[in-house]
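User: For a reading group we're discussing how well predicted structures match intuition. Take Putative hydroxypyruvate reductase. Before you show the prediction, I'll give you the sequence so everyone sees exactly what went in.
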Amino acid sequence: MTSRRPLLRAIFDAAVAAAHPDIVLPAFLPAAPKGRIICLAAGKGAAAMAVAAERHYLDTLGFDPAKLTGIATTRHGHGVPTRRVKVIEAGHPTPDEAGLKAAEETLQLAATAEADDLMLVLISGGGSANWVAPANGVSFAQKQQLTRALLRSGAPIGEMNTVRKHLSRIKGGRLARAGHKAEIVTLAISDVPHDDPSAIASGPTVPDPTTLADARAIVAKYKLEVDPAIARALEDAANESCKPGDPAFARASFELIARPASSLEAAVASVKAAGYDVLDLGADLEGEAREVAADHAKLAREARALGRRMAIISGGELTVTVRGQGRGGPNQEYALALADLLKDMEGVAALAGDTDGADGGGGSASDPAGALVDAEVIAAMRAQQLDPQAYLANNDATAFFAATGGLLQTGPTLTNVNDVRVILVD
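Assistant: Thanks. Here is the predicted 3D structure of Putative hydroxypyruvate reductase, as structure tokens, for the group to look at:
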């Protein structure tokens, strides 16, 4: 049978291209102001978004370069050359000292904004980890420890961000409070299910509907062991996030420029062009990776039983409750579970990848984006007598796919609209 890897990669690439800042940002950029443009960007697409903004204002509109300034904070390895906006590469998913320094500089620059200025805030997935400004009384080390605990707990991104927003001086609308004198325009690439503005990069410029009580409940729900300073901060009313009606939002607007659903639509179009019927499960799936894989494997078997040439497509952001000592991410774990469940079913190929180019991992630009499952992977698994269940038990999907040749390596894509999963049943 012809390899389906080129087709799977083309489907994934179509989804990524539909959300690239060069494509989606220019049409949403506001008119040039009388005063300065202060560009503050965070997330995996931050530097690429800043470049697209510079090109629009400096080249297309002829805006005075001396009046354009800013800071773009992005994940290590996701920086690109800029002209006026300073780029800082910082830690993700675990924050580091660079993100701490970048958040302080960002807040200080926002505080210089005046009434004639435009504070252009460009955010994408990863911004929560990139902008780190611990609440008063909470140390950076304590915030790092909490982030690691949340990452291992299996909590979905919305719950993680609820906790982080209440331990921050920049999240939960507080950046808008810092730059409230200016017009604030936030343009966002969504990486969260249901595109909730307050969840994207933890909503630095929008009202936050969640509360300190919500954050405490999440800590209790996952039985997280937190430092006493964290517990005190979550009881302190001074750490409540900015709510609707706050004066900080008097001149603030927010708009989505790319969303997971649009990228999934591009993937669906690519699949249909290849002659497959499509089962589109939507862009907002959440849940434990291996459990979702079991549901999707069942759908693949049903399609085979009906004799249909079917593509099963889904987006969203899955989670992994980490119990082992291995390496991987939700997409690799999903693919590993699929490999185990579909190992006896011929004519099936699958891809699961994160559109930012990194699935879990240690924060390196060389981390895999996800994994592929096909006849080559299954053959290598059998030849080496590898047991997928043993790798699942140790959360070691990266090692399994490194051994079987199934790692999806894309490098940084400079955008982030969540995950894309495709199962082709021939």
